[in-house]
Amino acid sequence: MASLFPLPSVVNNDNPNPKKYTAKGRYHSNLLVVLIAMDVLGVFVMLMGLRQQFHQQGVLPETIDGPYAGVMMVVAGVMLTLPFFIWSFKASFRPFGTLNK
């Protein structure tokens, strides 16, 4: 029975294929772990860039230290945190309990 109602119990579709959901759930849980790891790494790179920019003695050796090394590290950290931010922003507009797309 096809319906536009979002709850499967109302339209009597309460027998979903369990393999279909576990495979998608496993894929999205791995994706979530990768996104969180990228977010943590990005915050760490941003903090190192801020220290490099505003502290007398930065974290980079003198051979690779440039005039805007701290700014470049902050920009790289922001780029690393963007995928998790975008994914979580999109997830806030999805129906509760759906992980696909």
UniProtKB/TrEMBL annotation:
Keywords: Membrane, Transmembrane, Transmembrane helix
Domain of life of the source: Bacteria
Keyword Transmembrane: yes
Membrane in keyword set: yes
Bilayer-spanning residue ranges: 29-48, 68-89
Name listed for the protein in its UniProt record: DUF1418 family protein
Organism in which the protein naturally occurs: Paraglaciecola mesophila
Upper taxonomic lineage: Bacteria, Pseudomonadati, Pseudomonadota, Gammaproteobacteria, Alteromonadales
